[in-house]
From TrEMBL:
Pfam families: TetR_C_1, TetR_N. It comes from Nonomuraea maheshkhaliensis. The keyword Membrane does not apply. The keyword ATP-binding does not apply. Transmembrane segments: none annotated. This is TetR/AcrR family transcriptional regulator C-terminal domain-containing protein. Keywords: DNA-binding, Repressor, Transcription, Transcription regulation. Residues 6-66 form the HTH tetR-type domain. Residues 29-48 bind DNA.
């Protein structure tokens, strides 16, 4: 068993993130975390005062992993890179999707991220209210896609093709579901990759926001 003296807040939070990645956040408890660290449950409260403080720190780790929108590029490219990075990070930490906007005591990485996103939109010419609308829209798209993607029964084009041929098509007789049957057959034959839907939708969102700018 590891000594409590070997603990640190960074180690406690990192182990909590690993547990959540593996088992989900629902079953995470201070006792469960202490067991994984080989420490006494009460000793964890020296580093995090409550489970809520632990969750704040865990979400901060997630925000730290998301690429900030780069400053030396146009706003659409910057926000696209940030959105793609957020999707990749949330694929590694799907437990975080429902918690990203729930923290009332955000950590430093969380605040840096939000400042950088707001700065990108404001410098691009979006007024304060419109920048807020854009931020909400982009985050809702990223989180919603990440949530849907995490629940899919396939994660590759080959996986989709196998599901379409072996599972979907047998449930879609063409006389009853002609359009669904056609779609499943055509997409499977074309090597359709559901992962490409993210950039398709993201580009539509960014294009729809462009006319709302007031360039300076």
């Amino acid at each position: 068993m590891a000594s409590d003296a070997a603990l640190s807040k960074q180690r406690v939070v990192a182990e909590a993130v690993r547990l959540a990645d593996r088992e989900g956040v629902g079953g995470l408890s201070m006792r469960r975390l202490a067991g994984a660290l080989g420490a006494g449950a009460m000793s964890l409260y020296y580093y995090v005062a409550s489970k809520e403080e632990l969750l704040d720190a865990m979400i901060d780790v997630v925000f730290e992993e998301i690429e900030l929108p780069p400053e030396q590029t146009d706003w659409q490219s910057a926000m696209r890179r940030r959105a793609v990075s957020a999707r990749q990070v949330l694929a590694r930490h799907p437990w975080a999707i429902g918690l990203m906007e729930s923290r009332t005591s955000p950590g430093p990485a969380n605040l840096r991220h939000r400042e950088a996103v707001t700065a990108c939109l404001r410098r691009a010419g979006f007024p304060v209210l419109t920048a807020t609308h854009a931020n909400w829209l982009l985050d809702s798209y990223v989180y919603g896609f990440a949530l849907q993607e995490a629940s899919l029964p396939f994660d590759t084009a080959d996986g989709f093709a196998d599901m379409a041929e072996d599972v979907f098509l047998p449930q879609l007789p063409p006389d009853e579901f002609p359009y669904l049957n056609e779609s499943a057959a055509v997409l499977a034959a074309a090597g359709y990759d559901p992962a490409e839907e993210f950039t398709f939708g993201l580009d539509l969102v960014l294009a729809a926001l462009e006319p709302l700018r007031v360039p300076t």
